[in-house]
């Protein structure tokens, strides 16, 4: 099986050169024959997506949309608000890199079918996230 391929799309005015390097590092050990899209969007755009698809009229940090078509080469799309990631990194007292890595991995696991509606699901997903982030040296401080 080959490494997961990430197609990055930037719909903001942010320079994502360093984010690209970071995400290559984070996803380097992950094997998946399908690819995924990570799209960086503004606060306004992620709020609109959240409102339209989840019927929640507020901004969020990450949204995942799995691809249900088994014949497609993509497992789905992940939308991340860079602005929200910056705010959360400050609020949580860790680096912006840790937050972006966390959001990308969190979104990826949702594409694979992980969820966190129950305590056992949350614990399982958290451990899977932290395992990936530890390999990328993005541990929680």
Structural class: alpha/beta
Reading the helices and strands in chain order gives EHEHEEHHH
Count of the separate structural domains: 1
Task: Estimate the strand proportion.
Answer: 15-25%
CATH fold-level label: Collagenase (Catalytic Domain)
CATH architecture: 3-Layer(aba) Sandwich
How is the biggest beta sheet arranged? Answer: 4 strands, mixed
Overall pLDDT level: 94
* Spatial strand order of the main sheet: 1-2-4-3
CATH superfamily: Metalloproteases ("zincins"), catalytic domain
Helix content: 40-55%
Describe this structure in words.
The protein is built from five helices and four strands, in the order βαβαββααα. It is globular. It is an alpha/beta fold and 141 residues long.
Throw out a few tags for this protein.
single chain; 141 residues; alpha/beta; Collagenase (Catalytic Domain); four-stranded mixed β-sheet; 4 strands
Q: Short summary of the structure?
A:
The chain is built from 5 helices and 4 strands, in the order βαβαββααα.
List the SSEs and their pairings.
Layout: E1 5-10, H1 17-27, E2 35-41, H2 43-54, E3 62-66, E4 74-81, H3 82-92, H4 96-111, H5 119-135
Parallel strand pairs: 1-2, 2-4
Antiparallel strand pairs: 3-4
Helix pairs in contact: 1-4, 3-4, 4-5
């Amino acid at each position: 099986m080959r490494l997961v391929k990430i197609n990055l799309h930037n719909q903001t005015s942010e320079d994502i050169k360093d984010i690209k390097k970071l995400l290559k590092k984070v996803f380097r050990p992950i094997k998946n024959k399908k690819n995924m899209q990570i799209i960086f969007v503004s606060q306004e755009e992620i709020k609109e997506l959240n409102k339209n698809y989840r019927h929640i009229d507020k901004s969020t940090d990450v949204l995942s949309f799995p691809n249900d078509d088994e014949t497609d080469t993509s497992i789905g799309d992940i939308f991340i608000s860079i602005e929200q990631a910056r705010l959360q990194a400050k609020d949580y007292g860790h680096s912006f890199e840790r937050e972006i890595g966390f959001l990308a991995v969190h979104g990826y696991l949702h594409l694979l079918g992980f969820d966190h509606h129950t305590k056992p699901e949350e614990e399982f997903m958290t451990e899977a996230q932290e395992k990936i982030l530890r390999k990328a040296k993005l541990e929680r401080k």
